[in-house]
Amino acid sequence: MNGSELITNFETYVDDATELSSAQELTLVNKIYKRVLRSKPWEFLKKTATGTLSLSSPYVSLPDDFSFLPVPSVFYAIRNGNYSEVGIINFSDRRGRTGDNVAYIDLVNNRLVFTTQPTVADTYEFDYIYMPADLTLSTSPIFPADFHPVIYHGMAVDSDIINLSEKARSYTPENQAKYNSYLSDMNYYNAQLIL
Q: CA–CA distance from 142 to each of 66, 70, 131 (Å)?
């Protein structure tokens, strides 16, 4: 389903009782979409970043769509086809840590920082969880269509709270149960992707 179809289904579930404008409905689509995407490190959100280490800067820039690192987090420096692990430590543990095999995430500056300046311009790669762009009326969620209803059921729950009418609030438990059910189904699907 694209954004327009999600909104149409949402309006069906709230029986056109919503007082939201079209722009507010699209904002609500994206609010629920992002809530679902951030609910766990879904397998379909994993991407690989690659590049070449700098000999003048002790960091690599994080990708623009970077959200967070999966667990376990491993950074690889690659020299002549050989992968060398660089451990990722917590930002707060960075002080006093040195060595060629230690780095940390500096989210404020959007960097993965090495505790020691690299001395060889090795290539690198690491996996990360990315955050997809917002949905538009013509784009679809990145997860399988079977699970798209989680968005409009989540929208219906939030809409019930926003509209605050007795009729709207009366369906909140049903919409919440449907949202939870689709999210549970997505969790099961995700578990099947982990090898």
A: 16, 18, 10
